[in-house]
Specification:
- With 345 residues, the chain is of the alpha/beta class.
- It has a single domain, classed as Rossmann fold (3-Layer(aba) Sandwich).
- It has helices spanning 17-20, 52-69, 92-103, 128-131, 162-167, 172-179, 206-215, 231-238, 253-260, 296-307, and strands spanning 9-14, 29-34, 70-80, 83-85, 88-90, 106-114, 144-151, 183-185, 221-224, 242-247, 271-276.
- A 9-stranded mixed beta sheet has the order 8-6-7-3-2-9-10-1-11, with helices on both faces.
- β9, α8 and β10 (242-247) form a beta-alpha-beta unit.
- It is globular, with a radius of gyration of 21 Å.
- 35% of the residues are buried.
Length: 345
């Protein structure tokens, strides 16, 4: 009798998620865990976005397409927080909530991720009160981020078999110790030289570990539409889920391979596939390794964007079908007539 565990299947799609999400089929994903690049964050994404309107439109695009891709009643877990840029605090959490509610999601919960106090040493503005100990000078050191949980309607608990439930059973001790609280004390990824995701903004393994354990069953498919260094895919594999990751920067493929354990010949029955997306038009790299190379194009576009500011933002256009085939347990893509989406069945 063959008792070997079934393999899991992992697909990295290189490209712009606003062009790839529309090609994924309806209700094909069990859970989305991701973190959008924070609006022009000083250390990681300085000047990445040309305007805050561009960032808000990205939130709306992701919300609109993701609710179609998610299976009924499933969860979109978004790691995000407000961002202070050049002295101005931008309400990312409020605008993300607005975008997802407008797209039709239900608001399930908000978890506060608390980092160690030493993290405040990176933040410059918090020291103003020391240099100028007078009213109106202080800015607060931010030791928290938010994990917003949005749900795509009502989940049918009867649709899950008893066998599947037992295989995915949650550890009661972990649940009662901290996982059941809406405040999670988790150390952030430390800036240790030589780590695999050095110079790349990444959330700690513990965040997707908890979210994937709590909101998906084994053998289901988890999506991260801003994969970055590959943390969500790594943890999905460890927890015996399938995964799809979308990442705009092709230079991160070797990092993702190493982090997920697919850089060396695979001894397990798991599979890893890379699909290049050649048609995305973003004229600069997302990778924080090259933060200063971004913007001759942006400067040329700035005048046009200012002139167009009063006009409604364009509706997301569906791209042509990706002419590729996704192999693995979570599906294979077939080119179907009169459709512009990948089929994962």
């Amino acid at each position: 009798m063959n008792t070997a565990p079934a393999g899991t299947h992992h697909t990295l799609i290189i490209g712009d998620c606003t062009k790839i999400l529309p090609t994924l089929p309806d209700r094909s994903i069990a859970l989305i865990v991701t973190s959008l690049p924070y609006f022009n964050a000083e250390h990681d994404y300085k000047n990445y976005y040309q305007s805050y309107d561009e960032y808000r439109e990205l939130l709306h695009q992701v919300a609109r397409e993701s609710i179609r891709v998610l299976a009924d009643g499933r969860i979109f877990a978004l790691n995000i927080d407000d961002m202070r840029v050049d002295g101005r605090l931008y309400p990312l959490v409020a605008d993300a909530t607005t975008a997802f509610l407008k797209a039709g999601y239900d608001y399930r919960a908000r978890i506060t991720w608390v980092k160690p106090k030493g993290f405040a040493l990176r933040q410059r503005q918090s020291g103003l009160a020391v240099k100028y100990p007078y009213p109106m000078y202080p800015y607060f050191s931010n030791l928290t981020e938010s994990i917003l949980l949005f749900q795509s309607g009502k989940f049918d608990y009867k649709s899950v078999t008893e066998q599947c439930k037992q295989k995915s059973r949650i550890d009661k001790d972990k649940w009662s110790r901290e996982w059941n609280l809406n405040v999670w004390n988790i150390c952030n990824v430390l800036p240790v030289k030589g780590r695999v995701e050095e110079n790349i903004a990444a959330f700690p393994d513990e965040i997707p570990k908890r979210l994937i354990t709590l909101f998906s069953y084994k053998s289901e498919t988890v999506l991260d539409c801003f994969l970055g260094s590959g943390t969500t895919m790594k943890i999905a594999r460890q927890l015996r889920r399938n995964s799809i990751g979308i990442e705009i920067d092709p230079a991160l493929e070797p990092v993702i391979r190493e982090k997920t354990g697919f850089a060396v010949p695979n001894t397990r029955p798991d599979t890893f596939k890379v699909i290049p997306q050649k048609n995305f038009t973003k004229p600069y790299s997302l990778s924080p390794k090259q933060p200063q190379k971004r913007r001759a194009h942006a400067e040329e576009e700035n005048g046009r964007r200012q002139r167009d500011e009063e006009h409604p933002l364009p509706v997301l256009q569906r791209p042509p079908l990706l002419h590729t085939i996704l192999n693995g347990q979570h599906g294979s893509a077939a080119i179907l007539p009169n459709r512009d989406r990948l089929s994962l069945h």
